[in-house]
């Protein structure tokens, strides 16, 4: 809304500038037309055309405005002025060129630039208002924290939190602050980011500001917290399993090494097949 108001002010100044320029050219054209009519013959056909298009100042202003806005074919007006004098014909060409090629673009640029600056100012104003609103919310949350902290210990326990949150007045204040609490215990656990079962003033204030909005934000925060806890526990279990697998692999390597050592250090039995006799074993002895 503020941007629109500033843009309207720029538009008003642009209209004033255009009126001044049109008025100056209109005065020159009327003076030239009067001089021609004063010295022309009564039967001159051009006099009738001049009196038709340049009979009054409002008529000339409207004609010049219609020329630059596309409401009138300016070739007829140029013919009349050129018939008065070549100077007035060239002056109309200068007027059209100045208005269409220069002034209109300049005015449009000023108008657009002012609108952009006003919009930026509007954004800055909204940001400032949001900062002030957040500051008021923080002050109110700090007051609630001091109210919740019954023993003035600087922290809020779960019992203190649920006890005060059961009051309708506290729920109304939180609702006005756009903080919806469906489950007091779940809300407390979400605010308790360090899992100490106690809330300090920073956890309470910043957590409530983060959870401003519908109750589903609390549910999402609860799910995120549980997900983080599950991921942490899973990573701990994975680390434990990796340690156990490494230890088992080391033990297995030791067992394999011992078995291989015993296999190569013990005597090897050898079976010999003797014709018409039962097989018997000959043990090889190691040389001393």
Present the secondary structure layout:
Elements: H1 2-39, H2 45-53, H3 57-69, H4 74-84, H5 86-148, E1 156-157, H6 158-165, H7 168-176, H8 184-191, E2 198-199, H9 201-210, H10 215-265, E3 269-272, E4 280-283
Antiparallel strand pairs: 1-2, 3-4
Membrane topology: Multi-pass membrane protein
Subcellular location: Membrane
Organism: Noctiluca scintillans
Helical segment count: 10
What portion of the residues fall into strands of 2 or more residues? under 5%
Distance between the termini: 110 Å
Main β-sheet, spatial strand arrangement: 1-2
The assigned structural class equals: mainly alpha
The helix-strand sequence is HHHHHEHHHEHHEE
Largest sheet: 2 strands, antiparallel
* Helix percentage range: over 70%
* Basic shape: elongated
Throw out a few tags for this protein.
two-stranded antiparallel sheet, 10 helices, mainly alpha, 76% helix, 4% strand, EF-hand domain-containing protein, elongated, monoatomic ion channel activity, calcium ion binding, EF-hand-dom_pair, disordered C terminus, Recoverin, domain 1
Report what the structure shows.
It is a single chain. With 288 residues, this protein is mainly α. Among the domains are: 2-126; 149-219, Recoverin, domain 1 (Orthogonal Bundle), CATH 1.10.238.10. It contains ten helices and four strands. It has helices spanning 2-39, 45-53, 57-69, 74-84, 86-148, 158-165, 168-176, 184-191, 201-210, 215-265, and strands at 156-157, 198-199, 269-272, 280-283. The strands form two sheets. Strands 1-2 form a two-stranded antiparallel ribbon. Helix 1 (2-39) packs antiparallel against helix 5 (86-148). The protein is elongated. Mean pLDDT is 78; it is low at 270-275 and 277-288.
